Amino acid sequence: MRRATRAALAVTMCFTLAGAGLALGSPGAGATPTPIYNQPGGGGAIETVVIKFGPFSLDPQGQGHDQDESEGLVPRPDGVYGIKSAEFDLVDEQGNPVGKHDVHLHHFVIASINTVDTACPDRKAYLDVPAEPLIGSGMERTPLNFPDPYALKVSWGEQWGARWHLMNMTNTPKTFYVQYTLGIQRGATDENTRWVTPFWADSHSCPAGTTWNVKGDGGPDGVETLSKTWDMPFDGYVVGIGGHVHDGGLSITTQHEDGSLICENDAMYAGGMLDKITRCPTHDTITKGEKLKVTSRYDNSVPHADVMGMSVMYLWAGDQGIPPTTTTTSTSTTTSTSTPGAADPAADLTGANPSVLGTSGVAPAVSANPAFAG
Predict the structure, then answer these.
(1) What value does the mean pLDDT take over residues 306-311?
(2) Which of 92, 87, 88, 107 is nearest to 58 (CA)?
(3) Residue 62 domain flag
(4) Within a domain: residue 371?
(5) Residue range 172-187: average pLDDT?
(6) What is the mean pLDDT of residues 192-197?
(7) Phi, psi (degrees; rounded to nearest 5) at 96
(8) What is 241-287 written as a DSSP string?
């Protein structure tokens, strides 16, 4: 495994008004969403935090260090809050986007260290501690937005680690950063927010994110179909689904136990490479113990190595109660200028504390340290 030799961090922070709505890629096929009703008021103002992690320096394609497949502790905004949105990109020193087909973002996944993964409790991190994947991206750059009153909770003392694979696809050296942009609600509480649980399900194995090879023995129109079922951990709702496949992938489908469709995430290509994956505006009921089936479809006319097939689900454990006569879905939030919270003394696995941004909004330079695997 190739490891990053150095990772300096640069962080900028700003405030913005973010509308509520689920945006997990371009619209795709899915079940008719159940309306959101009897909802609490939500966490209020949304603060935007932009984090640049790096730099990464890669040799030209085909040379000794043309890719970086590694892991490390990564920074997060300080304090306790709810994540409302997340977007990932690769940028240069000035913050300009790096071409998607110049440097291949195979994956960059952020996980909560010392948190048990609901989907696969045996998933382990560096130093053999649990880790739960939270947010991430691949080539498809699928953005994540939760509608009010939903958010992903970040707790006091929580530490983040990441696992990544980055590949230079050009004939020139590349230096760049991974940039993740988070929309957070510092006013989110147990009383005003419905907290979602990440549930990353795979068509292949547990934990999600393992790879396999497509043999390519299916003939000119051959398609490999692979399915796995997953037991739902509680009664509640699927609040959002994003799909993740590699080049050669056609779709990821998530279905109820009775076969009814929840979501079909379809792959879209540009220049012969994966470009985007469709999303579903999902708000669908689940029951504890129900077996959801995740199915990946890959082109099988030629071989494809180290592929993945993931349904990146977010669940809410709860009951909306009795539907009102007229139901509405929250469509916006209000905003006001706010101040970053107090410094968060997150537990430190390595003797340093690169995982938390202080009240200045600027993180110190750190080296990438092993964080998690699985």
Answers:
(1) 93
(2) 92
(3) yes
(4) no
(5) 98
(6) 98
(7) -80, 140
(8) EEEEE-TTEEEEEEE-TTS-EEEEEEEEEETTEEEEEEEB---EEE-
Token pair listed for 277: 């994956």
- Asked whether residue 325 is domain-assigned, the answer is no
String of b and e for 339-348 (b: at least 16 CB within 10 Å)?
ebbeebebee
Statement: residue 192 has pLDDT above 70:
yes
Nearest 5°: phi and psi at 108? -145, 110
* Mean pLDDT, residues 229-235: 97
Question: Alpha carbon of 83 to those of 76, 147, 213, 317: distances in Å?
Answer: 11, 11, 34, 17
Distance CA 317, CA 211 (A): 30
Provide the β-strand partners of residue 245.
309
- Sign, CA torsion 265/113/126/88: positive
- Structural domain harbouring 23: 8-317
3-state secondary structure (DSSP) of residue 164: strand
Sign of the alpha-carbon torsion through 161, 250, 101, 3? positive
Q: Which of 4-8, 125-129, 244-248 has the lowest mean pLDDT?
A: 4-8
- Beta-carbon contacts of 209 under 8 Å, excluding residues fewer than 6 positions away, are 107, 109, 133, 200, 202, 308, 310, 374
Least confident of 50-54, 198-202, 334-338: 334-338
Question: How many domains would you assign to the chain?
Answer: 1
Task: Classify 183 in phi/psi space as left (phi over 0), alpha (psi -120 to 50) or beta.
Answer: beta
Question: What's the whole-number average pLDDT of the chain?
Answer: 81
Q: Is residue 23 part of a domain?
A: yes
Tell me the residue type at 280.
C
Of the pLDDT bands very low, low, confident and very high (cuts 50, 70, 90), residue 355 is: very low
What is the CB neighbour count within 10 angstroms for residue 260? Answer: 9
Closest of 165, 311, 307 to residue 246, by C-alpha: 307
Predicted confidence at residue 139, as pLDDT, reads 87
Nearest one of 101, 87, 90, 3 to 49, comparing CA atoms: 87
Per DSSP, the three-state class of 373 is coil
* Residue 19 pLDDT greater than 50, yes or no: no
How much is the pLDDT for 30?
59
